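Practice problem: Tubulin tyrosine ligase like 11
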Amino acid sequence: MESAGTEPESCPPAPEPPGSPALPAEEPERSEAAPEPQQEAEGVPPPAQGRRPSGPGSKGQAKRCGAGKGGRAKRGSTRRAGEEGGRLARRAHVTVDSSKAKTSLEALKLSLRQLRWREFPFGRRLPCDIYWHGVSFHDNDIFSGQVNKFPGMTEMVRKITLSRAVRTMQDLFPEEYNFYPHSWILPEEFPLFVAEVRMMKESDPPWKPTFIVKPDGGCQGDGIYLIKDPSDIRLAGNLQSRPAVVQEYISKPLLIDKLKFDIRLYVLLKSLEPLEIYIAKDGLSRFCTEPYQEPTLKNLHQVFMHLTNYSLNIHSGNFIHSDNVNTGSKRTFSSVLYRLSSKGVDIKKLWSDIISLVIKTVIALTPELKVYYQSDIPAGKPGPTCFQILGFDILLMKNLKPVLLEVNANPSMRIEHEQELSPGVFENVPSPVDEEIKVAVIRDTLRLMDPYKKKKKDNQLPDTCMDSKQRFPPISSRLPQSNLQFSKFAIVRSQLSENAADTKDELLEPGSTDQLEHISKNPEASLPSLCLKQVFPKYAKQFNYLRLVDRMAALFIRFLGVKGTMKLGPTGFRTFIRNCKLSNSNFSMASVDILYIDITRRWNSMGLDQRESGMCLQAFVEAFFCLAQRRYKSLSLQEQVASLIDFCEYHLAILDEKRLVCSRGITERRAALVTCQPDGLHLTAATHAPLLNRMTAANKRTDYRNHRS
Ligand code: ADP
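Answer key — structure tokens:
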């Protein structure tokens, strides 16, 4: 885990009373292009989106738009369009509440300035479009707009929870999820850890493994240590006091200049449903500060050799701060890729492996996130929509295989670091490499989340708003040093429309005043192309088959019943069994109850969330695996589970159809479509094609099973 300066990442957030204002230590600030204050008092109407109630100001807006039209009719159409467009653009300033941004504030401010959006550093009486939280979703009560955190994400990426979620996927798809090191959860799996290591050593005597012990909820390398054997005294001492994950240590990492390094990649989870994932095209590489040697009992304790954490290595005398993003102990990932490609490494393949790792990891996290989401923001209640930037820490093995180390829900967005000027005297100095990467990630995340985007497009006027790619390539592509676009200096350039006197001749073709107007109306035109690349749903076809637990979570959520709950009660579980037609003469409802009690009791005894009683999603998944194994004995676990999900979805679809038709209560139509009879449903092919397709698929699977057995 990395952090600029001393900012902790993904450590459990310090509890904060709801609604307590975490004000930045500076004066309130208005973004440069902010409209007059009275505009806020009138209430700039938010766009209709998500659960946001439609704003009261929409009528007023239309009025303002229409006013004075006649007077302007005499002017040239370009000019008129420009003015109207200007007003449209002004009206469409996105509002961002940055009062909870904490250490991401500086990078956020720079991003907002580049976008010329309105910042509210002390919060706002009226709702904002976007709320930027530095720590977690639960910073405030928000009923509309968008928040840059998902409920439950911090919990989901804790070391134990992440390991559990990946483990479930490894059970189903062992090949696909081999990018995560073999891990055991302590203390509960200590006996398993001992037994498995002994077995592996017996079957492969030359194997001399090393393990890394990571305390749950730890960060910045805190409390991490390496061991050579499960009998290590340190492990025994900590076992009961601190839950942890013990993991196979990757002892042959890829080295650059003999140093171990890892990669911090920024990933935007834009939406959970439908799943939308973006990856930043560049990230950071954090280097160790002692030459690497494979672990031996002698060097196990050398953190500067084995741990790539910035927060640790910065204390090494060998740490190199560099103003150049291509050198030093923290560099851009692109500079590392450049170096690797010059040595003949297939960079395309490496990127494709990394993208695949990211998508698969997010797929492992989403089922439980959906449970949190429906609990915090139940459907039908007013609430915000969410997005989140995640920090993925990835290690490259010597053979270039990427390995997932961890996911940070709260990656450091600091763009400065502490420097010791003289003994004991520290100063915050800008960190160019952090600024280059992080400001772009925040800015482009905001661009993707822009609630007015569609509206802006619709409002573009044909004679002034050109097809920007053809008529006016982005300024960034014309600037000699595109890197400058990301720096504080570049803001000056990106505000070209306001201070264009010197640069306009250089950048614009003669006679292109409308182009200048275009930039002034649309700051987007002066920004570099997006640094975030969509990978899902773009590659959905390749990865959708992995989303089995997601489908199980949908079943689980359906039977949760009470809004806001995260655990399934015994009645909900029984209803699930009954509605999905899972009990029969071989599996009575009494057995169902025993299964429920056994699994639920075990999961609850693991000391997980005790606030609610009942069956958590992970326990439900385990119960589902049991049911699938009982029912489809001869198949692989993956096939068993997929078949049972199909079976359940099929029966629930029939049930839904039946309820729908019955609730319509139109007897004649019902007779034509479907007959509700005690023995079930009779469907007509034309009206129930999707359902019949599922039935055919289910029949095919039965045939397949018969064929195999
Ligand atoms: P933290 O959250 O405390 O930073 P990490 O899981 O990121 O914990 O681990 C800290 C560092 O330890 C990583 O940055 C990496 O250098 C090293 N590390 C972690 N797991 C492994 C592993 N399985 N193999 C090799 N090195 C590892």
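Discussion: Residues 1, 181, 212, 214, 218-222, 224, 247, 249-250, 262, 307-309, 393, 395, 405-406 surround adenosine-5'-diphosphate (CB under 6 Å). Students who identified this feature from the tokens alone can consider the problem solved.
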